[in-house]
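Reopening this one. Same input as before:
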Amino acid sequence: MSKEFKRYQKEIAGRMLTVDINRVAAQANGAAFIKYGDTTVLSTCTASEKPRDGIDFFPLSVEYEEKLYSVGKIPGGFNKREGKASENAVLTSRVIDRPMRPLFPKDYRNDVTLNNLVMSVDPECRPELVAMLGSSIATCISDVPFDGPCAMTQVGLIDGEFIINPTQKQWDEGDLKLTVASTSQKVIMIEAGANIVPEAKMIEAIYMAHDINQDIIAFINEIVAEVGKPKHSYVSCAVPEELFAAIKEIVPPEAMEEAVFSDEKQVREENIRQITEKLEEAFADNEEWLAVLPDAIYQYQKKTVRKMILKDHKRPDGRAINQIRPLAAEVDIIPRVHGSAMFTRGQTQICNVCTLAPLSEIQRVDGLDENVTSKRYMHHYNFPSYSVGETKVSRGPGRREIGHGALAERALLPVLPSEEEFPYAIRTVSETFESNGSTSMASTCSSCMSLMAAGVPIKAMVAGISCGLVTGDTDDDYIVLTDIQGLEDFFGDMDFKVTGTKEGITAIQMDIKIHGLTRPIVEEAIARTREARLFIMETCMKPAIAAPRPTVNEFAPKIKQIKIDPEKIGEVIGQRGKTINTIIEETGVKIDIDDEGRISICGVEQAGMDKAIEMINMIVEPLEVGKNYHGKVVKVIDCGAIVSLAPNKDGLIHISKLSDKRVAKVEDVVNVGDEVDVKVIKIDERAGRISLSLKDVQ
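Same output, byte for byte:
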């Protein structure tokens, strides 16, 4: 190789992590060619030379590219090329973005892209984890300003034992899917799905991961010390202090406090609009100040709200620190759908609709995890612009919508019945009617009630709530807020979402804007969310619907499941599907068969379902001599009548067995299309003949 590169190695959880620097992608600001086991990811960090004009935010993009060659697959469909990012890729990008974004300078406006190219996948080493570590390393060694490093560890739970960086199989089958990101001092991101894990056990897992992260951070620091580039200077987009001083002359602090102190979002927005007009008029001759005025007003509001909360313990809507906004819940608000529920918390309102379908309608998944090829439960979340009083054309779900839907889906998965208990595909859709903070948690509550209203026998009720945070100058100067609204989310330091049952946690998603949380903050937030979700379940959700309905909705399909010998599946299907199609045509049902011999019969009319089951049983069960059966005359011949007992099971009623009296002509007794009860009097296995009698039926 023409150029020299550096290789760094560290053993983590019994597997070797290898990082090559300066081996590939030399033109990126920073690049790490990283392997964990045989899983290989190229992580790069690039930044634009100049800031982007006309924006008041840091333009960070995180990409996670799943290449199917990494698992030896060719993409399906006509276009044999990877298309748009999968749901897993979007969610992974979000998990990488959330801990890293707060570590970039707040006044940095250069475009930054973190790209992760998954090139090979070892089932023993999850590629998502490798990409997370690669992004941190690539950014740390680059010349892009970044207050890292940060590190990430995943924790699984099997038979009560924690597993560090579990294999893909352990991750899919265990009771915990926890990802924790840390800086050298604090936890900076938590993402979890859990099978009703107690709060104390969850905290133990979080800080086990945090301790392991410290070793990884030390490893990254060694790499940075040897090959890290000096951080480049940049044009600061901070608001001039002179502008702040001029604004306060026109709008003193008490006026701004009065403007933001209201429990109505629209009132606050109107107050700020009037203040903005007054300031634009005052600074009409200063183009430089007008360009940054929106950001200055935002920061002025932020400082005002934070001071009110932290020092005066006053929230913008007047609530107590641990008080939840007014709650309301109702079910069956949408006619004819299989299940519906609406949950309202203050100015956040979600309507959820549940749809049940045969298992044939499960979602097929084509991704890098070969253990997961389908999804039986789907939760989709929609966030239209009218929910926040804005006008914007809908262009389909973005990353936020996909993330919120996945969080609510993860929250409810642990309480869903198994396919054997409830052989349905299930889809719930959350429609955001109104939004002012934590719609994903309202989605969790409404979808739980919608499932119960549809007759899905969930194991326990699930609710969710979000806690916020405002911090001061020291680690012990902070205040945790229960049920944050939009303003407290925008101006606060944390959005800590927790869902769960009465017994434990089912999901966590923690976003923060500061450089990490201390353990007391994490423990208080988890305790506060438990208290709040129990309150929501007892005072709001249970009065609306206390338990799943005993049967599915009248408009939902009815499904019965039977089990047959897997070796008999071919007989039920028949050559080119002829047998099963005959059953479907005659009974009007839908039929799904899996490889283990489970057959789901789905229909609207009970009689058709019963007939389909009878026909299937006739196919798979041997006929018994001396037993009566029901059949249909399909052919008349000189010597008798051919009767179909089941597809591919025909028997002959000899003319002498049609009646006790002498029969001159077969048609005198039976005709094609007649349904008759017959007795099996003889079975010739070798010849494949079945002899039937009409006259011997008792």
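So the earlier flakiness isn't reproducible anymore. For the record, The CA atoms of residues 21 and 228 lie 10 Å apart.
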